[in-house]
Design brief:
Number of strands: 8
Pfam families: DUF4123
Helix content: 40-55%
InterPro entries: DUF4123
Strand content: 5-15%
Distance between the termini: 53 Å
Strand order of the largest sheet: 2-3-1-4-7-8
Shape: elongated
Domain DUF4123: 22-138
Largest sheet: 6 strands, antiparallel
Structural class: alpha+beta
Protein name: DUF4123 domain-containing protein
Number of domains: 2
Radius of gyration: 22 Å
Order of helices and strands: HEHEEHEHEEHHEEHHHHH
Length: 284
């Protein structure tokens, strides 16, 4: 689909009597969000993170707007800049905005405490990979009340129809959690989740670190080290981040270095035990 094809999808959905929605990544599109908010009625939009466990992130989280003017100059700007990965479009039945948002609110959190993460459903790359991975029978539980979705696939616009739009419970083992992520995006997701974890659980130590180091640079360095060591399990990442905050200066003790022939799990257990002995903390 070209830009004109995306417009045609909008017109086709309107002709069928459906309401058009814009799922917007407000964190990277703040100016666009503010522009839309100024011209929207109160019941024409919702913040997805509001009234959830991550309500404190609502300002930076995704927003869903309904609209009825596909030729709006702001939408044309989004279509021309699809590479910014700002979100995607959906069509719903009139009055289903709240149902659509509740659907995604129920699917926001991945994993169990303390290793929870946010599912970035509003990222068109996440949506595109999920739809490519899922069978058509799995679309309804994933898309919920959305009748059809239109999204930038990376090289072109595509659309997918939901064979049975409705409200569904979250499956015990959602198939969309099993979609492999590209290495580059997996790294960015780890960065975002690590940053939010430190803000939520270790904000004072993280703030002290920021007095001496650029947090983004420091965090990327720690995560690059974790990837080099093969420490990508939640427990391993959490351990490396916490100990990195505790370390004097910006270096870890020599015993942290991997030994010849040492496998990632063996390396982690050795370092974890050595750290516990050094700190006198048997709970590590």
């Amino acid at each position: 689909m070209t830009d004109s094809s995306a417009h045609q999808w909008m017109r086709d959905q309107q002709r069928l009597g459906h309401t058009l929605c814009l799922v917007l990544n407000a964190e990277s599109e703040r100016d666009m969000r503010q522009s839309l908010l100024k011209s929207c009625q109160f019941d024409d939009y919702l913040s997805v993170y509001n009234d959830t466990l991550v309500a404190d992130l609502a300002d930076a989280g995704p927003f869903v707007f309904t609209f009825d003017q596909p030729d709006d100059i702001r939408l044309k700007e989004l279509l021309k800049n699809a590479q910014r990965n700002w979100g995607w479009f959906a069509s719903i039945q009139k009055g289903d905005l709240k149902s659509l948002v509740k659907h995604w609110q129920a699917r926001l959190i991945i994993g169990a405490r303390p290793h929870q993460a946010l599912y970035r459903f509003h990222d068109n790359r996440v949506l595109s990979r999920a739809l490519a991975h899922l069978t058509e029978e799995a679309y309804p539980a994933f898309l919920g009340p959305a009748i059809s979705v239109c999204y930038w696939q990376g090289t072109r616009w595509e659309s997918t129809n939901n064979p049975a739009p409705a409200t569904y419970p979250v499956p015990a083992q959602p198939l969309w959690h099993q979609v492999p992520a590209p290495d580059t995006q997996a790294a960015e997701i780890r960065l975002i989740n690590a940053h939010r974890y430190l803000l939520a659980e270790h904000v004072q130590a993280y703030a002290r670190l920021a007095e001496q180091h650029d947090p983004d640079t420091w965090l990327r360095g720690r995560l690059a080290q974790a990837e080099a060591w093969g420490w990508l399990a939640p427990e391993q990442l959490e351990f490396l981040l916490i100990q990195g905050l505790r370390a004097q200066g910006d270096t870890l003790s020599p015993y942290w270095q991997v030994r010849p022939g040492e496998m990632p799990d063996e390396h982690f257990e050795r370092v974890r035990l050595a750290t516990a002995l050094c700190q006198g903390d048997a709970t590590l």
